[in-house]
């Protein structure tokens, strides 16, 4: 299986009883809204009703871990999908943000015992980000599959 076919190669299962949260960054929204659409496509295919999905938008990727934690405490979802896009700029700022976000998401997931999937694109340029937000390579789809599979293990 090629990496870009991850979401495509998994048969949808019945996740209709799950409650799912999605936290999505507004920064690079042309990319993150595609990730959101991809995640929602997978949720529909896995029979998660829209009324069982809570979507929260945040300013940027850095805010994602905190809002994932707040969403878990308030809405009690079975899984959370974290979606964002960090594109390298002229400095190393992207590395610090990506590191903080990935560690924060893992900390939230482990401390709350809720799967929080990592749908954060880290790309060197816009072209790479667009490629990871399109079709079967859509990282939002992959993050949704990962979150649902983990939640169904409970």
UniProtKB/TrEMBL annotation:
Its EC number is 2.5.1.78. The active site is at 93 (proton donor). One of its GO terms (molecular function) is 6,7-dimethyl-8-ribityllumazine synthase activity. GO terms for cellular component: riboflavin synthase complex. The keyword Iron does not apply. Keywords: Riboflavin biosynthesis, Transferase. Pathway: Cofactor biosynthesis; riboflavin biosynthesis; riboflavin from 2-hydroxy-3-oxobutyl phosphate and 5-amino-6-(D-ribitylamino)uracil: step 1/2. It comes from the Bacteria. CDD domains: Lumazine_synthase-I. Pfam families: DMRL_synthase. Belongs to the DMRL synthase family. Catalyzes the formation of 6,7-dimethyl-8-ribityllumazine by condensation of 5-amino-6-(D-ribitylamino)uracil with 3,4-dihydroxy-2-butanone 4-phosphate. This is the penultimate step in the biosynthesis of riboflavin. This is 6,7-dimethyl-8-ribityllumazine synthase. It comes from Candidatus Kaiserbacteria bacterium RIFCSPHIGHO2_12_FULL_53_13. The gene is ribH.
């Amino acid at each position: 299986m090629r990496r870009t076919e991850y979401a495509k190669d998994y048969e949808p299962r019945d996740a209709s009883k799950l409650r799912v949260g999605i936290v999505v960054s507004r920064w690079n929204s042309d990319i993150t809204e595609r990730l959101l659409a991809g995640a929602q496509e997978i949720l529909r295919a896995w029979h998660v009703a829209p009324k069982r999905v809570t979507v929260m938008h945040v300013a940027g990727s850095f805010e994602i871990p905190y809002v994932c934690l707040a969403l878990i405490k308030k809405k009690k979802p079975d899984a959370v999908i974290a979606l964002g896009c960090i594109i390298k700029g002229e400095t190393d700022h992207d590395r610090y943000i990506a590191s903080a976000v990935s560690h924060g998401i893992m900390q939230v997931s482990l401390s709350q015992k809720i799967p929080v999937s990592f749908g954060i694109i880290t790309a060197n340029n816009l072209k790479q980000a667009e490629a990871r937000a399109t079709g079967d390579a859509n990282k939002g789809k992959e993050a949704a599959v990962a979150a649902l599979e983990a939640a169904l293990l409970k």
